[in-house]
Amino acid sequence: MEQSAQQAQQLDHLASVPDTGPSPFAAFGLPGLGGPSPAAPPEPHPILELEGEEYEDELDALSDWVDDFLLPVYGAEVTTAAPWCLQWQAHDDVVAWLHALWLAYQQHKDPEAGLSGLFVWHRDFLTHAIAAIRAPGGPLSACMTSPERPAHRLLPGPPPSARAEKANTTETDPPGSGEPGRPTS
């Protein structure tokens, strides 16, 4: 009986939650090894989904990054093959591209991205984004193609789809007028 009681005591001890005393790995800050648990990263919001002061603050921060870091390092010469616009903030698609590029930069420069983080940013994000933004037929193609001739012009986007047009004409046709866009006989 005494032996059974000792075995039961040992099993209870083995089944209990271990003492969470200081871990020898706590100094390394590794989660699950006694270090502090990581803070949840902020939830990214595409800039074009922001409104009002929140949008303006994000655009100001983006503009600082573009003017102080991106253009001096990666701006290259303005030519017809690589146009630029001094009013790029007025081009919603360019703002969206640059904001996504900036968010990716912030993620990949973080120490947790590892030593190759910025290489990955260059390879997977920078090259593609700059090529799309500054393409000869891209969103800035009607803007500055020579530093001596600053220019800004927003190109018109495509018209609404036929489905949207049909919905709009249906809403404006008086009742009993037949099919939208067709005269009644």
Would you mind describing this structure in some detail?
There is one protein chain. This protein has 185 residues and is mostly helical. The chain has a domain at 49-133. 45% of the residues lie in helices and 0% in strands. The chain is built from five helices and no strands. The protein has helices spanning 2-15, 52-74, 92-109, 117-133, 162-172. α2 (52-74) packs across α3 (92-109) and α3 packs antiparallel against α4 (117-133). The longest helix has 23 residues, at 52-74. The model is unreliable at 179-185 (pLDDT under 50).
Task: Considering the chains and any ligands shown, give keywords for the structure.
mainly alpha, about 180 residues
Compact overview of the structure:
The protein is mainly α and 185 residues long. The chain has helices spanning 2-15, 52-74, 92-109, 117-133, 162-172.
Main beta sheet strand tally, sense and closure: none
CA radius of gyration: 29 Å
The low-pLDDT segments are 179-185
H/E series: HHHHH
Look at the structure and give the mean pLDDT.
Answer: 82
Give the class from helix and strand content and strand pairing: mainly alpha
| Strand percentage | under 5%
Overall geometry comes to elongated
Helix content: 40-55%
The total strand number stands at: 0
Q: Could you give the distance between the termini? A: 105 Å
The helix tally amounts to 5
